[in-house]
Amino acid sequence: MGSLPVLQWRKFEFVDIEEGADNGVLDGLLKGNSSVTCVCNGRGLVFVGDSSGYVHSLSRSLHSPVPSYPAHETAIVFLWAADSSSVLLTMAHCAGECSEIKVWAPDRIHEEQPILLRVLRPDSRPPPPRNAASAALPPAPRVTAVSVHPNVNMLALGFSCGSVMLYRGDLAKDRERGSTSRVIVTLSPGITNLHFHLSTQTYTAHAPSRSRKGGPATTPAVSVQTTSLLVTTDNNVYYIACTQKDKESTREVDSVGCRSGCSALADGRNDNLFVLARDDAIYSYSSEGRAGCYVFPGTKQRLFCHRGYAVVTTAAAATAAGAITVSSKSVCTMYDLSNKLIAASFSLPAPLLALLQEWGALYGVCASNSASSAPSMLLFREKDLHTKMEILFKKNQYDVAVSLAKGQSVSGEGVAEILKQYGDWLYSKGDLTMAVHQYIKTIPYLEPSYVIKKFLSSEHMALLAEYLEALHARNLHSPDHSSLLLNCYTRNKHHNRIQAFIQKHSEQVTHAKKLKESHGSSRGCGAGRCSTFSRNSVNNAINSCCSQFSSSDVEVLVSVCRESGFYEEALQLTSLHALHSLHLELLCNDTKQHLKAVLYIRSLSFESACEQMVAHGAVLARSCPDETLELLIELATDYTPDNTPIVGEASLDTYLSSKEPECAAPELFESVVCSDSLLAIRYIEGVTKRQAQQGKHQPVRRLYEMLLAEYLHQLEQAEEGVVREAWEHKVLGIISEPRHPVDPSLACLLCDRHKYPQGKLLIWLHHRMYSEMLQYHMSIGDDAALVSLCEAEGTGSNRALWLTALRLLTSPHIDRPRDQRALQAVLARVDEFELLPAMEVIDLLSACGNITLGDVRVYLTRLADREEAVTAAQQTIVDDYVKQSESIRGQIDAIQSSGVVFTDSKCDVCKKELEFPTVHFFCKHSFHQHCFVSYCSSSEDECPVCLPRHNEIRDALKTQASDRANVVSFGETEADDSNERASECDVFQQLSEYLARGLFTDYSAALAAQTVHLHTPATKAARRQRDAAAAAALESSHSSYAATESRLRLKESRPHAALGSSTTSEGRLRQAASARLDTLGTEGEGRIRAQEPGKGSNITSSSSEARLRQQQLQSRGGVNTVAEGRVRATDSPSSVTVPQAEARLRTQGNKFGSVASSPGVRSKPSSPARGRSPFERPSPTSLHDQITVTGPAPLKPMSRGRYDDASNMESISAAVANSRAKVKLADTNPFESEAGNPFGDDFETEDSDNNAFAGGDKSPFKNESKDDLNPFGDGNDYDSNLNPFGE
């Protein structure tokens, strides 16, 4: 315990005081000459006791919520209000009697005063014995100190005689069951102060408890709240433990006492528990005893504790006549005992009775010390922390600022900022050592680079090392910091520090490893049985030991050690931290211990060994090749570390099982052995041999390719003799062995590189790469070998080898004479296998300037003989085609110029005798009508027997026409083709397709050559005569077909009668025939018909033509009779099929020798499409229509007189078309002109407005139904006599 004079404490103004905070309200509450004697606060109210025994109350608004009331008859000396409940305790000294204590309920007002709950008159004197004689008792001692428990369940009283009485029970209840009161201890006279102190203590149970989850055993902790009573007298301080009832214990804490009101409990902001003030000093106490003594003189009047401050009021010293006396005024000083400073000091007009922490502030109440001064309230305003810091920074009191910030729970960043400013100030003053100490305190909040920059000069290396050591101690360093620290050691030649640093680190790592191993073994024994620590605590211990340095830090340490020459320490660090690469670099490059490096790699795990061997194997192979080679073979086949136990720990509790060998890919170590060819061969052969022993028969391609390269390298360097033969044997063994997966392209490249063509030829032969072999033989001029290869391999599917050989022999780029025998042999084989057309062969031969005619004389002679034979055979075929074409043209001419006689008497379907009705075709096929209908499935206009052949011809022509129409430029595609097809377009493929379509064949020239004899002058004249006769016959046929029955009968009966034009109506003709008239009338058609006998009796002149016809349709039914002409036509049954009109049959009988059937005849000439009657059936197609294909022709035909139609070629269809070209279609069409239209006078006028069949809005029947407009619409009312087209 040390003491510090108050003169050395720094004084600041952290608290301001404001007088008159009550605005005179407190003085107004007092009555008469009363004065304030005591003050307390609780539950938001301030209670004031005066010398008259009254109790007054004040709220925050300075009003009295509880009216003033007389509590005692004498002055009140003690007031206490509870915060947890509405309880007010008052005490006064009665005259001649013991002290009186009353308990009130301020919130329960009755008759303008609170309800009195309880009255206590404590007496510490022991009761007199019952059998003792009455005697005068000593006066009752007064209560000098009072303390109430915060829970209002205990009351401690101190008497003037030194006794301490303790009440237990609820003070707010009178006569509560279980409440007791007794004197617990009697101390020295004059009890000055009593204080209840509450604390929480944690006790550990003796028996450990086991975890429910099977974890390690834990020791339970029990927290117990204890209650103690601190007692002060004038000369002593006592501690009484009163937690347990009737088991109180007392001990003396100090032999220093204080007067009443000069002690207080600390608020727990520091380690102080209790503070008391004497005239000489202030003493603080903790749970262990006296904690500190702060010496400063002065008569102490009051002591209060508030937020870490000790507020002390002392009597002001006054000087009178050279002597120091005590003044009536007081001085209030606020001491910060933790930070050793004076927060504020100011004088008071009167002694301070109490400090009240209420209404969110600190208030003080001063009593009146004379008649002139009135009681008042003071308001203490403490400045905020920011303002305090500004005051301290202005005075450079950084140490006080740090202490103050820590005391007020400022964050670590805030404290670090203050320390940084403190260090900067010290650095500016030149105190670098203290500055470093302050900077060290800023760790880990301040960036280390800020401090390092200040001490980078050489004279400050020691201070920088000190700061860096602090960083390493807290594990907040980086690799750069470690490097800088070791550089500081190196510059200052502190070798001992480097060794100590590394040794300490090694010990920590070793301890961590042992701790980890022991932790693993304890876990194997079972949790809770072998371990006394929890798993988390063990892991934390391991991490704390291992986390001081990371791997990057160790690398920095190793580099510094290598630079300084501490190789053993560097090897120790790398071994401890498993930095295998650095360890091997030290062994190989620094210490040159290569064999030790190989042994070190053998002790590593499989993955680490492979990695390190790839990195350092090349250096080791040059120094110790045998040991390195053995290690490489083991890594590639079956590797086991040297430090591996025979039986693993995992196999102790289970059955022994075979473990799969760990091996790497053999090509992984290619970079290790590639610098030494012989070493690489030994490695690969050793690996393959070891793999064969292990039963691994799957070869590795890369391994054999590497072996082949090394063999070829040795073969190239070997001289002629046994050694070269041995290497060549090995090379051929790899190439010829099919189980060796060597890439042929790479093998050929290696053979070229090492100048070994025999290997390349063997590879090509095994992989059937004959084209490459041919090119090689051609390049070296060995034509005989080329032919030999083709003879051996150019059969079957490989016949194209002969063609390749021919192209090579005839290549114009080879400037040397060819072997005549080889060339003749190749040409013979190409001709024999028909590999290339003769013209292309000749083109190849002619392109080569080194081949003479004598070299190919035999081939050309043989070719000419064969071509002559082929030409003769083809000429014979052409002559046959010409004869067939002449025959077909003769048939066509016969059909066009004369009639066709159908002599077939049997049906081509059922093979029975023909019976009417029959169907005949110009192809001489005849059918029964019912057979034709059942047999014909697709078209009724064509012969069903010839239809398949005609369809084939039509399809071929359509395909040819469409192909010609779709011709595009070579190398291009149609517009709708995709980009993919366009990118894959093959010009030669398109060319072959167009050749197949006949695009480049000159059909016109060939046709002209074949038909030149048909265009002589005599032939042309005969053909013109034949065409004129055919046109006349065709015109008469059309006229006979277009004439109606009545017209033909009239023509037959009166040939010289005037029948009018060809458009005369049917009704007029009948009228002329019945009346024997030579001229025709002009009446309407319907009226003429209605006037026929028996057809109309109710005819008026105003009846319209259409109405007359409608009456005719409704008045009679149609009766069909066979006409005479039809009977006459039956004389030739072989030429008549179905019934026709009489006169028509007569006319046809006069024109032709035979007639086809009306609806089924397929040889009937078709009327032109223009001017066709709407009631006429479409004419059947002719042979020309059946075989002629529409569409543009890609080739222009020869310009001859008879071949004006550019859309037809000279074929069968062209001949038919040209024979009809001279016929005028307009002359054969009876409906072409207005005069020949039979519908011109069907109505009363010839105006188109009255035409029932005319379209447009002018039709008079536009609002009538279709049945009214069509006189032949109803089948039931049909009359054949009224139909001008009827039979």
From TrEMBL:
Keywords: Lysosome, Membrane, Metal-binding, Protein transport, Transport, Zinc, Zinc-finger. Residues 1033-1204, 1228-1287 are annotated as: Disordered. Residues 1147-1157, 1179-1189, 1278-1287 have a biased composition (Polar residues). It is found in: Late endosome membrane; Lysosome. Residues 1033-1043, 1101-1116 have a biased composition (Low complexity). PROSITE patterns: CHCR (PS50236), ZF_RING_2 (PS50089). GO terms for biological process: endosome organization; intracellular protein transport; organelle fusion; vacuole organization; vesicle docking involved in exocytosis. GO terms for cellular component: HOPS complex; late endosome membrane; lysosome. GO terms for molecular function: protein-macromolecule adaptor activity; zinc ion binding. Pfam families: PEP5_VPS11_N (PF23341), TPR_PEP5_VPS11 (PF23356). Residues 1046-1055, 1259-1269 have a biased composition (Basic and acidic residues). It comes from the Eukaryota. It is a peripheral membrane protein. InterPro entries: CHCR_PEP5_VPS11, Clathrin_H-chain/VPS_repeat, PEP5_VPS11_N, WD40_repeat_dom_sf, Znf_RING, Znf_RING/FYVE/PHD. CHCR repeats lie at residues 439-626. Residues 907-946 form the RING-type domain. Belongs to the VPS11 family. PANTHER family: VACUOLAR PROTEIN SORTING-ASSOCIATED PROTEIN, VACUOLAR PROTEIN SORTING-ASSOCIATED PROTEIN 11 HOMOLOG. This is Vacuolar protein sorting-associated protein 11 homolog. The lineage of its organism: Eukaryota, Metazoa, Ecdysozoa, Arthropoda, Crustacea.
